[in-house]
Structure formats: C-alpha cells, structure tokens
C-alpha cells in the first residue's frame, strides 16, 4: 500500500461526513422536526444539533485541504500540477467554507440569542436563513462529489 491510500481514504471520509451530514439534516431531520415539534422545542433541537455536527464539520474543514494538498504533493507534482477537476474542487471548497463560516459565526449566535430571549418568531426567521445557507452548501457539496467522481468518464 502506498502513502496515497490512507490519505485518500481520510479525504473521502471527511467529504462523506460533511456532505452526508448536511444531506441528513436537510432531507430527513428538518421535515421530521417540523412535523413532530413545536417552535421552541424545534429551535432548541437545532441549536444542539448544530453544536454537535459542527465539531465534525470543523474536522472535515481541516482534514480536506490537508489531505488534498498531501495527495497533490504525493502524486501530482504539487499544487501547481493540480488537474482541472482538482482546481474546481479547491474553488468549491472555498465557497463551502465561506457558507459554513457564515452559519457558524453569524447565524448560529443569532439563533442562540433568540432562544435565550424566548423570541420564537426571531428564532424561526434565523433558522429559515440557516436552512437556505445549508441547502446551498449541500448543493455545492453534492455537485463537487459528482464532478470529481465522474472525471474518468469525461
Ligand atoms: C483544498 C481543498 C481540496 C483539495 C486540495 C482536494 C484534492 C483532492 C485530490 C488531489 C484528490 C485525488 C484525485 C485523484 O485521485 O485523481 C481528491 C479526491 C476527492 N476529493 Fe478532494 N480536495 C479538496 C476538497 C474537497 C472537498 C471540499 C470535497 C467534498 C466535500 C472533496 C471530495 C473529494 C472526493 C469525493 C474525492 C474522491 C473522488 C474519486 O476518486 O472518485 N474534496 N481531492
């Protein structure tokens, strides 16, 4: 086994955790929470979900570029030798990171403040904005994985 294999596996696992987590949150948990919970419980649930999930997203956010650049050093003659699909991957990574940081640094604190003040309408409005941001990030993540996975057949 070459050094490339474990680095590659870690890279794909990090992508799986981040994109798969967003898929589950958006497609499964969100509609289930709307059906089963009233606004106060729903907002508290999401605050707890984000707190736990974002620990893993932070790990993915670090692991992806480190392993990605590691693979470029090992097999592609460094970052300058990155093929077009890897350049696309790096660009989409930056966009995904920006959207994640927006939720983490701006929207999540707003959600927590609304919950502490028991201001459920304001909390619902922030949660709606978080939903849109995560939805965009999910689309970017799915597109990224599809583009990279399809590359041998272009
Ligand atoms: C700075 C950021 C990134 C760099 C430098 C990078 C680099 C790379 C490299 C060099 C490969 C191996 C390509 C090959 O073997 O031909 C790869 C594969 C892959 N990357 Fe990234 N990547 C980055 C970010 C991401 C992100 C954000 C995701 C998804 C969320 C992602 C998902 C994948 C997947 C799924 C593969 C495997 C594709 C396959 O073999 O079918 N990468 N990446």
From TrEMBL:
Swiss-Prot/TrEMBL keywords: Membrane, Transmembrane, Transmembrane helix
Keyword Cell division carried by entry: no
Copper resistance protein D domain mapped to chain residues: 48-150
InterPro entries, alphabetized: Cu-R_CopD_dom
Annotated Pfam families: CopD (PF05425)
GO CC annotation: membrane
Transmembrane segments: 6-29, 49-72, 84-103, 134-151
Protein name as catalogued: Copper resistance protein D domain-containing protein
Species of the source: Pseudomonas knackmussii (strain DSM 6978 / CCUG 54928 / LMG 23759 / B13)
């Amino acid at each position: 086994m070459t050094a490339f294999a474990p680095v590659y596996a870690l890279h794909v696992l990090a992508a799986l955790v981040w994109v798969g987590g967003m898929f589950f949150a958006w497609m499964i948990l969100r509609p289930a929470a709307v059906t089963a919970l009233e606004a106060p419980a729903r907002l508290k649930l999401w605050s707890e979900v984000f707190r736990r999930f974002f620990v893993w997203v932070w790990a993915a956010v670090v692991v992806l570029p480190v392993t990605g650049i590691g693979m470029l050093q090992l097999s592609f003659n460094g970052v300058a030798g990155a093929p077009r699909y890897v350049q696309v991957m790096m660009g989409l990574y930056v966009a995904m990171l920006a959207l994640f940081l927006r939720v983490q640094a701006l929207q999540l604190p707003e959600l927590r403040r609304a919950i502490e003040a028991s201001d459920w309408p304001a909390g619902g409005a922030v949660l709606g904005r978080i939903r849109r941001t995560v939805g965009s990030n999910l689309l970017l993540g799915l597109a990224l994985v599809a583009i990279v996975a399809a590359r041998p057949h272009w």
